[in-house]
Design brief:
By secondary structure, the protein is an alpha/beta fold. Helix content is 35%, strand content 19%.
Length: 496
């Protein structure tokens, strides 16, 4: 019997997961990756004993991670050394007041009641809504494989219109639970993970703050890249082959099929199936024939981007917790500036991560590793954004914010800096418009309305990753990887 072959373009989380599932079913799988290591945007940079995660810096939705590792045939705790992070975040407001988000409900109640008397009962009701949205969302929107419209538009799904509130605005929905704007911000900022403003996100995403408090935020020893390393190890064990430092120039198509890929040296790698894990917009615009699909993809709503700073520091800042989020009081103006103006807000909300608080091996002894992330707009079509000026302003905004916590001398103790702007995200990881989360999750790009796992014209071309179903994020990338693999196996009539 002729063994079917699959080429996976890109070694991101989704591509790795698909490759493992496919190889375990006997397919010959080769992953072609432009960079020198797996992970895609979930990358790691190491320098002089300092280790930086370039992508997510905390593990959310742990139940999805657990289920997907089980689907790969191994318990997650066999592959990762996990610790729970609590408080999950330390929120710092413009006047220096703070809120530690914690699963210790008594401690959380005491803090909330100071900010807004009676708000703890509002939180409990909000968590009840989040519980419903989480479980229904995962069951009805994340896990199903919508092969045709009737798989989604069916009678039993009609109650979702009021059960998960997809037509309600998330921030406006918060008025049912809190009056204080800072509390509304504290439980909606997670929408930025979806590449969205809470002022346009569906109220469905209350599921994010629910899962963080109910299921916990976690951190694996060695940083988030250790998840990539675990998947890579499983892929090697399953027999997956890897071609690193190999750029795919073109997906070779003939009629309604793909025959393989053309790589940088001009040679063709043949395959029965091609699975693209590269950024979906990039694939349509750069790797496939230009028949209008690329332009249609470019017109879809892309997520925002970020300016990231990676600092190796010659002293420790114990006063910095692992996850600090500075939330601006001009919350709406922040998102308007990012989403509508594609810029950097005057007073940006921003995030600072100190991984050595959780794992001492992330920095040399007596020193620190710091990551600062400042959300900005994605790249504009006219290219008139001044990223050098925005990067310098963002850097000064981080220093200014940190001084609120008594960190007054950071600039004097930075040994080295590396930084990413949207230009960097586009160059290093082929992310269209430098959008760090791919396509955003507005109503018309959610669930069934998100791009499918399979190309509508080329029958043996499939997709996996942030911009396909079910959506962006590390755990959903693993779901996407399993679903895409199942689609391929079913189409090849291979029993799963």
């Amino acid at each position: 019997m002729n063994t079917k072959s699959v080429i996976v373009v890109g070694a991101g989380m989704g591509g790795l997961t698909s490759a493992i599932h496919l190889a375990k079913q006997g397919l010959k799988v080769t992953v072609v990756e432009k960079n020198s290591r797996p992970g895609g945007r979930c990358d790691r940079i190491s320098r002089d004993g300092h280790h930086f995660d370039t992508g997510p810096t905390l593990m959310v939705m742990p139940l999805l991670f657990e289920a997907e590792f089980e689907a790969l045939g191994i318990p997650i705790n066999k592959m990762l050394d996990l610790q729970r992070v609590d408080p999950t975040y330390h929120l710092v407001f413009d006047d220096g007041n703070q809120l530690a988000l914690t699963s210790d409900l008594k401690a959380l109640q005491e803090q909330l009641e100071v900010i807004e008397p009676g708000s703890f009962q509002g939180l409990l009701r909000y968590m009840d809504e989040g519980h419903r949205h989480y479980h229904l969302g995962v069951e009805k929107l994340v896990y199903p494989d919508f092969r045709k419209a009737s798989d989604f538009f069916k009678i039993e799904n009609l109650p979702l219109l009021y059960q998960v509130k997809p037509l309600a605005n998330h921030y406006a929905n918060m008025s049912a639970y809190f009056n204080e704007p800072r509390l509304k911000a504290a439980f909606t900022f997670q929408d930025v993970y979806m590449g969205l403003s809470p002022f346009e996100a569906p109220a469905t995403f209350s599921m994010m703050s629910y899962t963080e408090l109910a299921h916990g935020v976690w951190y694996p020893k060695g940083g988030m890249y250790s998840i990539v390393e675990a998947l890579y190890e499983l892929a090697i064990e399953a027999g997956v082959k890897f071609a690193f430092d190999t750029t795919v120039q073109q997906i070779d198509v003939d009629g309604g099929y793909t025959r393989g890929v053309i790589v940088g040296d001009g040679s063709r790698l043949d395959a029965d199936v091609v699975l693209a894990n590269a950024d979906l917009s990039y694939v349509h615009q750069k790797l496939l024939p230009q028949n209008g699909d690329g332009n249609r993809m470019a017109r879809k709503r892309h997520s925002c981007s970020v300016i990231s700073f990676f600092w190796g520091v010659d002293k420790r800042y114990e006063e910095l917790p692992p996850h600090t989020l500075f939330l601006a009081d001009n919350y709406r103006e922040n998102f308007d500036s990012i989403i509508d103006d594609l810029g950097l807000p005057d007073n940006p909300s921003l995030y600072v991560h100190a991984p050595a608080r959780l794992d001492a091996s992330m920095a040399p002894e007596g020193q620190d590793t710091l990551i600062a992330i400042v959300p900005v707009g994605h790249m504009s079509e006219n290219g008139n954004q001044d990223w050098v000026s925005m990067r310098e302003k963002a850097r000064q905004d981080v220093f200014r914010r940190l001084r609120m916590l008594g960190v007054n001398d950071l600039e004097d103790h930075i040994k080295f800096e590396m930084n990413f702007t949207p230009l960097s995200w586009r160059k290093r990881y082929n992310l269209a418009k430098g959008s760090t989360h791919g396509l955003c999750h507005n109503l018309t790009q959610l669930g069934y309305f998100r791009p499918d796992y399979q190309h509508p014209r080329y029958e043996n071309l499939y997709f996996v990753g942030a911009s396909t179903r079910p959506g962006t994020g590390m755990p959903t990338a693993m779901v996407s990887g399993r679903q895409a693999a199942n689609r391929i196996l079913n189409d090849l009539r291979i029993a799963v």
